[in-house]
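ugh ok so i messed up the first submission bc i forgot one of the chains. this is the corrected input, ALL of the components this time, i swear. 583 residues overall. if the numbers dont match what u have on ur side tell me asap before i send this to the collaborators (the ones from the other lab, u know who)
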Amino acid sequence: MMTKLKRSQSGLLKLSLWVVALVFIWCVALPRFAQLKPIRQHIDTMHANDINVGAMFYTELEWQPPPGAAWR
Amino acid sequence: MNDSKVDEPRAEVNDQQVPRDGLTEDWTAGVVGLCIVLVSLAICLATKPGNLNWSTRLVKAPAVATPASEVAQVSDTSAESTADSTADTITEKPKWNAWVKGWIGKVGQWKQSPVEAMTLTSTDKKTSEKSAKPALPGIFGALIATLLVGLFAVALQRLPLSNFVIAFPFVFLLAVLAYVMAKQEAIESSNLEYALWALLVGMVICNTVGTPKWLKPAVRGELFIKIGLVLLGAEVLFGRLLALGVPGVFVAWVVTPVVLISTCIFGQRVLKMESKSLNIVISADMSVCGVSAAIATAAACKAKKEELSLAIGLSLAFTVIMMVVMPRVVLALDLDPRVGGAWIGGTIDSTGAVAAAGEALGKVGSDIAVTVKMIQNILIGIVAFAVAIYWTKFVDTTASTPAVGVSEIWKRFPKFVLGFITASIVCSLIFAASLFGELWVDASTAGITKPIREWMFCLAFVCLGLDTNFKQLLPYFRSGKPLLLYVCGQALNILLTFIMAYLMFGVLFKE
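and heres the new structure output, hopefully the right one now
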């Protein structure tokens, strides 16, 4: 019973540490990183050209295949 | 990694989720996925633009209007035929949106605070005006849509619906959290896709407090992946294959299989990879198109979840590096933008990263890069089918049944792949029939199947994370073989794609 309780407390502590680390990275470190000149330039260029860098498949891009791209 | 690890059972479904007399997971995914595709096509048909029919053709708008005097000289007969032809011709593609488009949404990109993710901003291309709308209705729509899809699947499997309904919203919340993490502007512009963060979110919970028992009925990673793959089939349109003509086919469809097979043989014979499924998943995601190819191949060969996680991690890490390095190399070598574009499109794993890297080469280079990647994307249908057949016939055999007959192949074949192929063939045929078909499929995909597919994949990766212990991943890192396989395979890919891109776009089809 005690071991189970200890294990659950240690699990909660680990989870809290993870949450603190992730909140710090996403809410403090990454916004600052995004302000570095080369990163800002890259982000602005992608925005200006409507490029979805996170696209997994071509249908997720804001991009139209060239005219005649359909085979019929 | 030792052999005992490799031979662990692959289907990790907990006891309470084993279907008694319902459909198996493969059949369920196939049926659910195809139903969504058909319903989506039917919904879109109900809102087709009035001036569009099966014989409508797209023509170039005349540069100069015909003077009235010339029109008056046209004889009655020819005037009639002109009227007939113009009735079926249009000069601009009409907008065809499913009336439900926007009902299923995602979180928005954010800069400073995650709260910004709850607002979707867009810029009008013509007026450059910015507009903002709340993301919550779209996220709620996604919750309802994915819950209904899940319930349909669970009902087909004759599993308890109430347990699923209680657990699902919590898994969905974790998927929303993963999307919020992926939408931080620095993360999104680095091509670190939501799959990675969904895995991390799930793994953090699994490896700290553990996945609660009551959540398990909705932790259906494999089912969500298979449904997502059948929906992906609707986006694999073979009509796009000849978008760049012969050179595009040679760069994307000749080099890619050669690299895939060579890497696989190298992994098996030279590196002596313990897991054949890990070998093929890494080879496919490196040579074809990153995460989507990894998902399709892993499902086709029934790879373990940690193998898929590892392959995706490797692919995303190298994609970030290649996205930065490749355009600089192309510019340093002063390559023709067409050759450079084809090289980038054929080598960088992820589609978004190809678009980002291609941007440095200008409009022509960028278009070629993304088009080559699009043609490569289509290859995943063939790869998944071929891997499923090969695995069933030659790999997934036991000592007791060395000779595999047709019935045995059918028994072992991952049936959801049939749903994937059927969705692809149906949509490819409609797409190829006419302009009407092309716009119909585009409307169906953009408005319904694609958003559901993206959420299904995100949910799937959250579930895989909720089922993965960090310790299970360690043996793969210790040997270093997966990393070596990726690096060697990518080196071959870079070399062969360069030769083919130069030959095709720089020598044989220069104009």
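quick check: The first strand of chain B starts at residue 57 and ends at 58. that seems consistent at least. Chain B has 21 helices and four strands.
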